[in-house]
């Protein structure tokens, strides 16, 4: 069962960590793009909208899937707990460490989702403002 603990620790937690890095990186890239954006350089509203919404889908996908990945880690850790309980004499320390691992994956999944949701909301608001400015310019 050590492979399951390894998979949870490095697989699920690693995936959540990678998702948070991707989300943060895309957020910074979009902010830098928005700061340098000149609305008047776009000929149509559709071309501006495409440029503004680039990478927002990826951030939204991370937002919606991070809790599920955290939940997957929780389910796997609970399975590990039950397996430890059935195979060995009940050692409180092993049970508690498995349950702590379950709660850790849930918490990290929620943190990644909340952070990505904040990033997405900020970027969508920037996009809406730039589109409004474009409408007024024309």
Overall pLDDT, averaged?
Answer: 91
Alpha-beta classification: mainly alpha
Q: What is the first-to-last residue Cα distance?
A: 64 Å
Q: How many distinct beta strands?
A: 0
* Total of domains: 1
Q: In one word, what is the shape?
A: rod-shaped
Residue runs with pLDDT of under 50 for 5 or more positions: none
Percentage of residues assigned to helices: over 70%
What integer value in Å does the Rg equal? 21 Å
Order of helices and strands: HHHH
Number of helices: 4
Largest sheet, strands/sense/barrel = none
- Percent strand equals under 5%
Question: How do the helices and strands line up, and which of them pair or pack?
Answer:
Layout (H helix, E strand, L loop, with lengths): L1 H35 L8 H8 L3 H32 L4 H46 L1
Helix pairs in contact: 1-3, 1-4, 2-4, 3-4
Short structural summary:
With 138 residues, the protein is mainly α. It contains 4 helices and no strands.
């Amino acid at each position: 069962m050590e492979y399951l603990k390894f998979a949870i620790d490095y697989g699920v937690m690693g995936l959540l960590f990678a998702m948070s890095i991707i989300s943060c990186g895309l957020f910074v890239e979009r902010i830098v793009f928005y700061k340098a954006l000149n609305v008047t350089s776009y000929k149509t509203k559709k071309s501006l909208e495409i440029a503004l919404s680039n990478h927002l889908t990826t951030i939204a996908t991370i937002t919606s899937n991070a809790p599920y990945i955290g939940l997957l880690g929780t389910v796997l850790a609970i399975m590990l707990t039950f397996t430890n309980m059935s195979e060995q004499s009940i050692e409180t320390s092993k049970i508690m460490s498995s349950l702590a691992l379950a709660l850790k994956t849930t918490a990290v999944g929620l943190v990644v989702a909340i952070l990505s949701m904040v990033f997405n909301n900020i970027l969508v608001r920037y996009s809406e403002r730039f589109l409004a400015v474009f409408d007024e310019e024309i």
